[in-house]
Amino acid sequence: MTAATLQKPFVISRDLQAPRELVFKAFTDAEHLKNWWGPKGSVITYIKADVRAGGVHHYCLRMSEGSEVWGKQVYREVTPHTRIVLVSAFSDKDGNLTRHPMAPVWPLEMLTTFTFDDIGGGKTRLTVTWLPITTNEDEYTAFDQMRDSMTTGWTGTFEQLEAYVATF
Prior knowledge:
alpha+beta, 8 strands
């Protein structure tokens, strides 16, 4: 099964009280990313962000219970203030792809699209679309069954981003 054959991507949006240029900068500048990226309660302990087509965002999150989770994103498209398309995955500290540390049947790679829409009044609608790239039936089933968890995770990340951009 490929992403093209999947019928139901995960999509979530949030309206932020910040201009699109600021929200986009929060996504593309490592100094900003380290202040909000990741699930609620996590802290970035390592970050490298080369935000351009072909560039890599590699990071380590220390979770609230103390474990470390590494992630890697490879950018496919970066359209300033409008759209970012990347492939996201879990990784090790050297950037090699790994399985989800708590869900071994989770898809190895996800196609992630962020869109930044100016909705007027200095506000931005941020939309995340997530889709497994290549997966088998078990991995797609795991993805499909984790929609509530994905909603919770992205909601927490949005809350951190919203609080961070409010400081400007």
